[in-house]
Amino acid sequence: MSASTAIADRATAAAHHPARSRVSARVRGGRFRRFLVPLLLVVLWQAAAQAGLVSSRLLAPPLDIAAAAWTLTASGELPYHLLVSLQRVVAGLAIAITAGVALGLIAGLSRLGEDAVDATLQMLRALPFLALVPLFILWFGIGETTKIALVALGATFPIYLTLFGGIRGVDPKLLEAGRILGLGRAAQIRHIILPSALPQALVGLRYALGTAWLSLVVGEQINATAGIGFLVMDAREFLRTDIIMVGLLVYALLGLGADQLVRALERRALAWRPSLIREA
Amino acid sequence: MAPSVVRLRGLTRRFQGPAAPPVLDRIDLGIAPGEFVALLGRSGSGKTTLLRTLAGLDPVTEGEAVLPQRRAVVFQEPRLLPWKKVWHNVALGLAGEARATRDKALEALREVELSHRAEAWPLTLSGGEAQRTGLARALVRQPELLLLDEPFASLDALTRLRMQSLVAELWQAHRPAVLLVTHDVEEALLLADRVLVLANGRLAEDLPVSLPRPRRRAAEGFDMLRVRLLNILGVDEDGHDAAARAA
Ligand SMILES: Nc1ncnc2c1ncn2[C@@H]1O[C@H](COP(=O)(O)OP(=O)(O)O)[C@@H](O)[C@H]1O
Ligand SMILES: [Mg+2]
Q1: Ligand 2 center from residue B169 Cα (angstroms)
Q2: What is the ipTM of this complex?
Q3: Closest Cα to atom 18, ligand 1: which residue?
Q4: Which residues cross the membrane (chain A) (predicted)?
Q5: Domains defined for chain A, CATH in brackets
């Protein structure tokens, strides 16, 4: 962000200030209102099922789904599969973050690194990574490795791209100011380049989490013997739409939870940004 | 006269090829230790280019430049790192133990009357506060040469007046040599020992200002110098463009 846009931001922040409390009151009220329509839809869905308008073989009614969720949790089945899925995502993401950050730093901080890394990654990125599934199965078999590799591959690109872009987008005026303050290259990277790339890199992390779940869903449908995906595929064999719905719900909640996690991280790491200052 | 902290000899700077007229054309300039010099010139006359050379930010390709070791710059925009608290911006790049540099930064902030904002994020500062932080960041390095590139240009009139007297006070207290780039003739006369005018790549005027300090606009001789400088800049007393009216 350049100094001049920063000032413009500050000006807008100041301009919005008087209206702030009213707006946030409306948002708080709206938060409950926002759930009204989905709630109504669930009630209608239940009513339709009980009236026999929707076949519960094709789509289980909400109460059945809740019951299935309860049974699966109580039996320990759901927690077990959830843990397996989580392990895959965490392992894949750990690899993706390590690789994405390393490659982003190499390409972002040196022209030589850019020449070595960027073209290759841009080409790989053009390939829809899920198309690599057959190749991965040949290379890694149908075990854990393929699933983790799939998560890792998909999540690496957004982290790499945003970090690279963030590093290259650093305001040259700030670098110049740093130079005249006597900062060496290492200090410039630490105090100027990396902090200025962080907001973008965190957006990349958010994208990475999104692709990670997608890869997980695909990966877990390849002959898995455990995990949420297995639970869903297994339930399909027995036409248990209630369990399938539980699996989908868990995927949704996991995605939501991960997003909240990154948001919390952003609030801490980017406390200096005017929008966040305004909320505080 | 004391030995100069800055010496430029035949400094020439071009951005286009050798055929085009240079932005700076064989500039000779010396600045004595503790001297306050103002540099006037129309927009685009090369003031920032000259200041950047004195800051050591641009390479010297034609002519020679002797510069002091400790130089500090306050730019027109504050150029603070938004992710570092105000005091941390001031302490940035200072050598020494963390505790000691922090104390130095806080002391510099006290001098610019910003102690109460030491822990603030830069993006929450007003324009004047941001420029004062920039000033503290420059002063804390105890520069031999302080370079100010239109530091008050984007401030409102009242804040600008306060900043001008603050700069005068700090200069009296620390006595660095100062080069203040400005397009405001009165500002130059209120602050400087010497006023330079840059036109067509050359220093068209080098005018000593011997008015007593603290300076006042009402002082005898002030208005005469003002009119003279305005004429050199090609503007008549009422602010009309003299060249345009003659045409
Ligand atoms: N990096 C650059 N590349 C090309 N032209 C430049 C560059 N910097 C300045 N100039 C040109 O040099 C002239 C003087 O610019 P500058 O020193 O910024 O003027 P001032 O600060 O007096 O307004 C202008 O015509 C400007 O377009
Ligand atoms: Mg300029």
Answers
A1: 25
A2: 0.90
A3: B48
A4: 35-54, 89-112, 124-142, 148-170, 243-262
A5: 84-269 (1.10.3720.10)
